[in-house]
Write a structure and sequence with these properties.
About 25% of the residues lie in helices and about 35% in strands. The strands form two sheets. It has a 13-stranded antiparallel β-sheet with strand order 8-7-6-5-4-3-15-14-13-12-11-10-9. The longest helix has 23 residues.
Length: about 375
C-alpha cells in the first residue's frame, strides 16, 4: 500500500478514535452532537416537512432519507412512525441516533477531507444497521506477505477508448436522429392514497404514450403515481410542463435526469470526449459478461458503464446525483436490442433507484420511427 494512502487511512482512524473518545469520556461531547430532543407534541414545519433539525433547508430531503435507509438496509419505519402526520415524531431512538451520525460524518469529512463528501452512511454500514468491525479470516492470497513468482499476473483489460469505439461500431448510437417513440411505461402505482394504509405497487401502473425526440429536445406525456398524465418538454437547455395554470418552466430539478425521462434513448449517448474514464474490471450484468468502465463527466459527477464483452453493447449504465449525505444511483438496465438499419437500440429500458418502489420505471419501446421531420416549434411549450 503506498505510503500516502497508509497515512490517509491512519489519519481517518485517528479522527474516528478521537471523536469516539470525546463522545464517551468528556463533557465536551455535548457540543459535538445535538441534545436528544424529547418527542414533540406537534410538528415543526421546515420546507413542508415536520421536525427537521440537522437537515434544514434540504431540497432533496426524500432522496437523502432513502440514501440513509438503503445504506442501513432497513425500511422507513426503522426510524419513523410511518403513519400520516406522524413521521415528524421522535419516539424511536434510531431517529435521534441518526441525527448524531449525520453530524459525525460531517465532522469527519470536514476534518479529514476538506469538506468533500467522502465518508457516508454506506462507508461503514454497507446495508446493515450495525457496521461490521471485524474482518473475515478467509483470504484468497497464497501468501499474505508478498506475491509469489508462480502466481498469475493480474488481468489486463482493453482501454475505455477502445471499448467506447467498439460500442459505437456495434450500435451506431451517435447517428441517432429525430424519432417518434411509442412506449409502454410501467411505474409505481399508488394504492389507498391519503389513507393510513396507503402503499405503492412497484411498476404496477401501465400506460402507453407517444413522444417526439431529437437528442436533448423532446416532448412526452409521463404517467404519475395517481394515474394522471403530465405533459413535459425540453427545448435543450430549458424544460417545461403543463400545470393547472398552463405551461410552466421547470426549476429546482435535476435537468439531465428529466431529459432522460422524456427521451429514454439519451442513455445510449456515449462520447469518449465527454469523460475522464478507466476500465476497472469485468462483471456480470443482466446475465451478460461485461467490461466495467468508471467515468467522470465535466461537472465532476461519476458514472459507471457496463459493456458486453461479446458484442460491445451497452448493458447497464448508472448515473449518480448528489444528495446531502452522498451520491444516489440512477441505474438503467438495457436489453432486447433491435436493429433499425445500421442502428441498434434496446427495446427494454428498466430504470431503478434507491427508492425503487416509488420511482422505478420499466419502459418497453413498442415502435420507433426514425428520420421524421421536426422543427423548433415542435419542442416549445404550447401557447396559453
Amino acid at each position: 500500500m503506498p505510503i500516502k494512502i497508509r497515512l490517509a487511512v491512519c489519519c481517518l482512524f485517528a479522527i474516528i478514535f478521537c471523536w469516539s473518545s470525546v463522545i464517551h469520556f468528556t463533557t465536551e461531547a455535548q457540543e459535538q452532537k445535538p441534545p436528544t430532543p424529547a418527542p414533540s407534541a406537534t410538528p415543526t414545519p421546515s420546507d413542508g416537512f415536520g421536525n427537521v433539525q440537522v437537515l434544514k433547508g434540504v431540497r432533496d430531503l426524500l432522496p437523502t432519507m432513502h440514501f440513509m435507509r438503503a445504506s442501513l438496509g432497513v425500511r422507513c419505519d426503522y426510524c419513523h412512525i410511518t403513519e400520516i402526520n406522524n413521521y415528524y415524531r421522535d419516539d424511536k431512538p434510531a431517529k435521534r441516533r441518526a441525527r448524531e451520525m449525520i453530524i459525525m460524518t460531517r465532522q469527519l469529512n470536514q476534518a479529514a477531507f476538506g469538506g468533500k463528501q467522502v465518508v457516508t452512511c454506506n462507508t461503514c454500514h454497507r446495508g446493515s444497521p450495525k457496521p461490521v468491525a471485524i474482518p473475515q479470516i478467509a483470504t484468497n492470497f497464497v501468501n499474505t506477505t508478498r506475491v509469489e513468482p508462480f502466481e498469475p499476473p493480474p488481468p489486463t483489460y482493453p482501454g475505455a477508448g477502445e471499448i467506447f469505439a467498439r460500442y459505437e461500431a456495434a450500435t451506431r448510437a451517435s447517428t441517432l436522429g429525430p424519432a417518434n417513440l411509442r412506449v409502454e411505461i410501467n411505474r409505481g402505482k399508488l394504492m389507498n392514497g391519503n389513507t393510513g394504509s396507503g402503499y405503492m405497487v412497484p411498476r404496477g401502473l401501465r400506460v402507453i404514450t407517444e413522444s417526439i425526440v431529437d437528442g436533448e429536445r423532446g416532448t412526452a406525456s409521463l404517467p404519475q403515481a395517481t394515474g394522471q398524465m403530465l405533459r413535459v418538454g425540453s427545448i435543450g437547455k430549458r424544460l417545461w410542463y403543463i400545470g393547472p395554470n398552463g405551461p410552466q418552466w421547470v426549476t429546482n430539478v435535476d435537468v439531465e435526469q428529466l431529459k432522460r425521462k422524456i427521451n429514454p434513448l439519451l442513455v445510449l449517448r456515449v462520447r469518449a470526449a465527454d469523460y475522464s474514464s478507466t476500465t476497472t474490471g469485468e462483471e456480470t450484468a443482466n446475465g451478460i459478461d461485461c467490461y466495467v468502465v468508471n467515468a467522470t463527466v465535466a461537472n465532476g459527477m461519476p458514472e459507471t458503464l457496463w459493456f458486453s464483452k461479446r458484442d460491445g453493447s451497452l448493458i447497464r449504465r448508472t448515473y449518480y446525483f448528489q444528495t446531502l449525505l452522498g451520491p444516489e444511483p440512477e441505474q438503467y438496465n438495457l436489453s432486447e436490442y433491435k436493429r433499425f438499419g445500421a442502428i441498434r437500440v434496446p427495446m427494454v429500458i428498466n430504470t431503478s433507484y434507491l427508492d425503487d418502489q416509488h420511482l422505478g420505471v420499466l419502459r418497453r419501446i413498442l415502435s420507433i420511427k426514425f428520420g421524421i421531420a421536426v422543427a423548433d416549434k415542435d419542442f416549445e411549450p404550447p401557447e396559453r
